[in-house]
Amino acid sequence: MNAERTAGVRDALDRVEREREQVLAKRRAVERFERRVRKLAARPERPPSGTARATACGTTSIPATTRRDAGAGPGRRRVRELFAETIRPHSVSDVNGSEPLAVTIREEFGPEVATALSPDAGGRFTPAVKEAVVSAATDRQRGLDGMRRALDAEERSLRAALAVLDECENWLGRADATPLSELGFEGLQRRHETLADHREACDRLVHERQRHLDGATRHTASVEIDHRFLAEYLYEDRATDYPVLTAATRAAGVCVDCQRAVRDHLVRRV
Question: Locate the DUF7260 domain: which residues (predicted)?
Fold first, then answer.
């Protein structure tokens, strides 16, 4: 068996498994974050400054709230702390790096939540802000679930491809143990036919892999994870973005070369 021709597919399987572990770890982190945010107390905003309020003797005006009073509630700060403790370690490669926390929050939860949680936003941790954060965390978990399903589909595609390639490579390894010169006419014919079967299997694999890459895994009703984009992301630092197509094409090429050699021997036997 020529392990070198299938090494890229095996490496791709390892890459998918590592990515899935990271996705599951982040999913658990987001779930912990959401659970802890739900336990935080939320308070309505104070009435606007100068608002009239009814009293037993008539009405009185509520004093203007200072910026210090407006931001005095610890809720938003605590949410940022929880994010830094739970999600950030799974979102950046270097937790102590230079990326500001606000940038990481925006990347994970979007600009609206990032703005609401900004230290400059002021205001209390209101029920509306809490709901926005919880909703963003829930959506993020769904997105990570979609990514996991896409990775599962990629793994199934890789394993199915490896089964075809291994069968071909194993047969080629066994066949190489018997030189063509030791085969009779019928033996040469059988070898030529078997090579044709494996070549056709590799060609089918190429078409099946292309169909997989042209597909997508549903994330939400309106959002899908494109399989080709996922493969390019997973294998961008590898020798090829398309390990299955590369391996299948090479194996099919070997079968074609072997068939040519078998035909040369058949011609000499006629």
Answer: 9-259
